[in-house]
Amino acid sequence: MGNLKKKRRHKMSKHKRRKRLKSNRHKKKEY
Question: Which of 6, 23, 24, 31 has CA 20 to 30 A from 14's CA?
């Protein structure tokens, strides 16, 4: 189970990275 969770986290990391970049862009615009 632990290993599966780790793998799942890695897959989500890629998606989260893209969202984080978009979030950063929005934050810059707000500033």
Answer: 31
**Which residue range is the domain that position 31 belongs to?**
1-31
Count of domains forming the chain = 1
CA distance 16 to 29: 20
What CA–CA distance (Å, rounded) separates 11 from 30? 30
Q: Tokens at residue 24, please?
A: 């950063």
The model's pLDDT over 1-31, given as tens digits with 9 standing for 90+, comes to: 566 666 666 566 665 666 666 666 666 665 5
Calculate ∠ Cα 17-9-24, nearest 5°: 20
